[in-house]
Sequence to fold (484 residues):
Amino acid sequence: MLCLTLTGNTLEKNTEYIELYHTMSDLCELRIDLLEQMNLQDIIAFSQQAQLPLILTCRRERDGGAYRRTDRTRTGQLNRLLREGTWAYVDLEEDFRRGELEQIARERNIRIIRSFHDMQRVPADLFSRIERIAAKGEIPKAAVTALNIRDALTLFSAEQQLAHIEKKIILAMGDYGVPRRILYRRTGSLLTYASPPGTSAAPGHLDIESMKHIYRSDQVNSQTNIYGIIGNPVLHTASPRIHNPAFHKVGINAIYVPFLVDDVRTFFTFADRLSVKGFSVTVPHKQQVLPYLGRITREVKQIGSCNTVVWEREYWKGINTDYYGFLRPILNLLDGERIKRAAVIGAGGAARAVVWALRNHQCSVVILNRTPQRAEELARQTGSSWAALDDTASISQVDLIVQTTSVGMAPDTDADPLPGYTFRGDEVVYELIYTPEMTAFMKRAKLSGCSLVPGKQMLLGQGIMQFETFTGLNYPFTEDTVVF
Ligand code: NAP
Fold:
């Protein structure tokens, strides 16, 4: 079940959230600790009128909530709400056993979710606590904190050890817990919580629209093929919006999830455990995945980095779709020899794919970089020439300028990587940055009449090739119809 956590600080706001999101949710959690006024009569009326089943929760500050009054006051308030309101579940903490509340819940057919929280770690006695709660006929809920990918792996193992407990909720707070929230049906959790867009009830909460419409996490089942992206950071990535709607459009049962990864080796164990079928790789893991791959393509070997890994029966195969994504928008120009000489600004990871792609298409390249040694090194490896970043005379004759540095990326959108260069107007300018879509560098090039290739085209191009590698199917959207 997808549970919308009502994060409003008034009942009016929460009514609005239900109106807006009830079609995306199976039930709602009313967090009365978040309300600015604890008017019990109004809360009772709210519960009786809600369009969806409700969980009643009053979370204490020490468990990550906002309730500051005494346990006695809380017991009194919950007592009245349980007796007079309409609730499907009540969430009571493991160390808060009050016979009177449990009795009312039993009499009124309100299921008890017995929760415990650890805001610091995954506790060592996690499994035994869950067992103990389940043995009492209550629904155990563990909300613990995953500090790294190893913690996330430990929690995924929980399903095997606790498979006999049919109704349980095991959540990991924080960014390492995001895949668990999305894949809750694969991990045997009764439900997952999501917030109204623009709010967040707990660290790592996703919004209900993404859960329902991007990830379709309520559709995941034992047959769903799991794909994803690893990186650090990774949650900002647009890739889930490239892949998930496309899986749905072509009608295959698959999901694409962001995995925050601090240790690549552990992720490969994690991927085996979850039967991950393939994944994208972003900074800083593009080189770190190489030792774990059974086969790599010529481009991965040349570039020395891999952005796509796919399971091929007995081993992981690595490819580099940045290479092809970059080439796609300019292939005709290269093949038609409209582009014969190029300047590449930058000598980082993306520049390596760009320079090799150009060199493999017989284009001469000059590399300009802030750190000249890196330009020199890449030039040596690829048979290119190089120059200092301010040596703009060295690129006066080029047909193509590829901007591969991070200069001009949001939030520093006024920055220009090549302020000393005056555009002629007949160069093609290819910008790799895609946030913002129009950088200061591109604006200046456009004013001079240059034709532009925005970073979004490469991003989409590499994503399309990943999709085709993962599924063997054509990507179902065009540049005009994709939304990400
Ligand atoms: P990277 O390996 O960290 O390389 C960064 C490059 O930017 C290096 O050449 C670095 O020069 C240069 N640089 C950074 N700060 C600078 C500054 N203040 N002044 C001058 N040069 C500076 O990063 P990357 O993976 O290559 O990514 C670079 C950019 O490409 C990012 O914006 C990324 O989002 C974008 N990208 C886009 C796509 C796409 O599909 N459109 C794909 C991959 C990457 P030094 O060597 O001197 O440090």
